[in-house]
Amino acid sequence: MADKYDVIVIGGGPGGYVAAIRCAQLGFNTACIEKRINKQDEPALGGTCLNVGCIPSKALLDSSWKYHEAQSSLADHGIKLGDVSLDLDTMHKRKDTIVRNLTGGIAQLFKANKVTWLQGSGQLKSGKQVEFSPLDGDAQTLQAEHIILAAGSVPVEIPPTPVDQKIIVDSTGALDLPEVPKRLGVIGAGVIGLELGSVWARLGSEVVVLEAVDTFLPTVDQQIAKDAKKQFSKQGMDIRLGARVTGSEMKKNQVVVSFTDKDGDQQETFDRLIVAVGRRPYTEGLLSQDAGVSLDERNFVYVDNQCRTDVPGVYAIGDLVRGPALAHKAIEEGVMVAEVIAGEHTQVNYDAVPGVIYTHPEVAWVGKTEEEVKESGEAYKTGAVPFAANGRAMAAGETGGMVKFVADEKTDRILGMHVVGPQASELIQQGVVAMEFGATIEDLQLMVFGHPSLSETVHEAALAVDYKAIHVAQRRRKK
Question: Global pTM?
């Protein structure tokens, strides 16, 4: 191991490992410090996302949906299976295999790009020095011209429900429940709570989601959010808004949760409880007192729009910094920082970062919501079309949800796109591309979309903005 590098990245999650690979591609002698030990007691790259987040949760979401389909909807297609049973151990093994394949793939990419993987923890000190503490052995001081902080985030814990990873679990523990709980409580109706709640609901749990705020998905366009909540409720998820958790008590192998809502003090008993109230930046041990890097009041590292910290040559990306805690945001920030270091012209377009909830139906969005545009006072127009009017959606039995556009009334520029429905995570990329190129609603209206396809609903929604939709009846609004 050398003691001097061109670039040292602290953190091997999506932002960190991508930054390290891109730096190496650009000719820099690069090291990446990562301390994670996986379930097999082996060092692992990939951070939260690949090990205990995005990837394993999507594996369970897909597996649980196939189980749900086999139980409830394949018969509609003329496919009769008889009794359908669940093998949860096999489902977990499949998930774990996917995780190991992907994390092992990153290690191979490091070798191919000559990135040095330093297994252990790193702390930034003054003078662009890094104290590296290996998993085995003594600490060593390393030096680099450029340092990228990419330590990620950890789940937020709340005092009323201390996590024991047995009865009360966080998002990590929720991925490995050994059996399907009869009654499952979820604290938090955000992305993580809804995804994990839907997994276990499909597998047979009675799921109750307790959300402290009175608005469902307050940062999502509310026309989309209301439609999504209606569909989740039909699936059996009991989502209770304005429910503030005040305490919990263990009784045998269950937990009694106390909360307050509009009707006063309430209690519910659950076999398992998932705490999914958000994530916080992981800065413990990351910075020495003399490192010179500033944190804001919520412990996020302060950076400019190209992720520079207050210390020249030191950058921070991903969940450590402002903006949504999304793996794809972290990835693009990692690429941007590597190219900034190389002197290239680059910039992440923060106005076109998509968000996705991988429930079924999926919820996805990019840009501004109608509520945000309305509050700004700028003139706007909208158009929304349901998937119920789409032939491909009907053929697939996926007619719930809609596509919606928000556009500037004067310039016709697309301000936002919002989807709840089948393959929303894929369809939203059409809005991302359009916004990246500064497209207008007319640009989408003039494009030819394949038939039959779910994407035709994107086309119809664009047409609906100007009352040109063909396959839905529209009533022109009075001005």
Answer: 0.96
Closest CA relative to residue 142, chosen from 311, 288, 4: 4
- Strands 140-149, 4-10: parallel, antiparallel or unpaired by DSSP? parallel
Omega before 324 within 30 of 0, i.e. cis: no
Q: Which of 427, 366, 416 is nearest to 393 (CA)?
A: 427
- CB atoms < 10 A from the CB of 47, how many? 30
- Cα gap 298→18, rounded to integer Å: 26
Q: So which residues are the catalytic ones?
A: 451
Q: Give the largest CA-CA distance in the chain.
A: 74
3-class state of residue 48 by DSSP: helix
pLDDT digits (tens, 9 = 90+) for 6-18: 999 999 999 999 9
Give the closest residue to 146 by CA, choosing from 315, 25, 331: 315
- Distance separating the N- and C-terminal Cα atoms of the chain: 70
Q: Which two tokens stand for residue 458?
A: 């994107």
Provide block-wise average pLDDT over 10 residues at a time, the chain (479 residues): 93 98 98 96 97 98 97 93 95 98 98 98 97 95 98 97 97 98 98 98 98 98 98 96 98 96 97 97 96 96 98 98 97 98 98 98 98 97 98 97 98 98 98 98 98 98 97 77
Tell me, what DSSP letter sits at residue 378?
-
